[in-house]
Amino acid sequence: xxxxxxxxxxxYYNYIAEKTKIYKLINMTRFSSSVAELRSSEIRDLMSLAxxxxxxxxxxxxxxNELFPLNKIDEILNSLSDxxxxxxxxxxxxxxxxxxxxxxxxxxxxxxxxxxxxxxIITTGSLQAINILAKAxxxxxxxxxxxxxxxxxxxxxxxxYQANLITVPLNGDGxxxxxxxxxxxxxxxxxxxxYYSPNFHxxxxxxxxxxxxxQMIEVLKNQEIPVIEDDVYSDLxxxxxxxxxxxxxxxxxxxxxxxxxxxxxxKILGPGLRLGWMLVPESIYQKxxxxxxxxxxxxxxxxxxxxxxxxxxxxxxxxxxEVREEYKKRGFAMIETLEDCMPDSVTFEKPRGGFYTWLxxxxxxxxxxxxxxxxxxxxxxxxxxxxxPDGIKNDHIRVSFCNTDVETIKRGVPVIADAIKELx
Length: 424
Ligand SMILES: Cc1ncc(COP(=O)(O)O)c(C=O)c1O
Description:
Elements: H1 2-28, H2 33-36, H3 42-47, E1 56-57, H4 70-79, H5 82-89, H6 98-110, E2 119-123, H7 125-137, E3 143-148, H8 152-160, E4 164-171, E5 174-175, H9 177-186, E6 194-196, H10 210-220, E7 227-230, H11 249-252, E8 259-264, E9 276-280, H12 282-296, H13 301-312, H14 316-341, E10 356-360, H15 367-376, E11 379-380, E12 382-383, E13 396-400, H16 406-423
Parallel strand pairs: 1-11, 3-4, 3-6, 6-7, 7-8
Antiparallel strand pairs: 2-9, 4-5, 8-9, 10-13, 12-13
The structure holds pyridoxal-5'-phosphate.
Pyridoxal-5'-phosphate binds at residues 61, 125-127, 151, 153, 197, 202, 230, 232, 264, 266, 271, 276.
């Protein structure tokens, strides 16, 4: 371990030297006001040190490499006709290849989504869908309702349009409705939309209860505040019995609210495809199409051809069922190891699916100090303040179980426990 620390220190000094040079250059360059304040965070700097080959990373939110359906992808690629290969290498329509739009629409419809009364757009990851929606709705200084904690990618997208983030804290069953009402009342201007993530929240790991979703609908009905419903983890449940209560607001199709539903192939097939989607009301669709046209014209055709075949040939549900089992094993190993080795003062909601555990640290224990100690010991996690829209609250760490096997979880989690014990 000593070697990791000294290698990292050296890297750190080089890194700071490089950064200083870059900042000097930045100061001479007239960037736009929307990016001038963007800075690499302290956490990102710390993370860049955590690259030693034997580091155990509980930091990422990506699928396990060894879980990708390599044989099926090989078969699909090898089976393509010349015509299909030409389509795969060509630009496609901005809203998506018609074949994928059709197969994806069927798949989403089977899950109960109102595909026929809405419009579907294939996007370059669901982060692009969120970004396009943000661009569609936000002027500088506009307010947006977000959960705290919240998915950092969405927060960064909203910040890049100079949004004012109004935070609503999360409880174990979803956002705090009384605080949502209070925030709405206190807002100096009406928020342009509400962004939330209903199932296996990143980072909080929770599922929204039906009660909270219904209360959200009541609060937002006829308020001209659209909802962006970011749903990338719903398929990765551990318990079949949870499925009915995981119903999406989009599926409920409430009157008086524009619900913009976003989803992705990233966690259920492969993020390298860079394919996601949005299902939005017709009134919002056209603007989004025009915005996407100006960003990247279309999402990768080759990925769309592969994803389309993966659905059409009937692989997707079987594959998801397989990985669901593996993530369940990893999630259970995570819960068991945390219960065995963490001090009682560390608390967490047991995950019921998805990729993450969200640990509340003992009183007074700072997540950045925990991260530093963990890195010294060869393990990486993510600090709570990364997900705090205000960038302050740092009394949690996010520990992922998606990209580490059971044995590594059992080996790595006690290291985090030791780091915390040394700090309290
Ligand atoms: C909650 C949530 N939404 C959206 C995304 C974006 O995923 P992608 O752009 O790969 O579809 C992620 C990725 O981690 C996520 O955790």
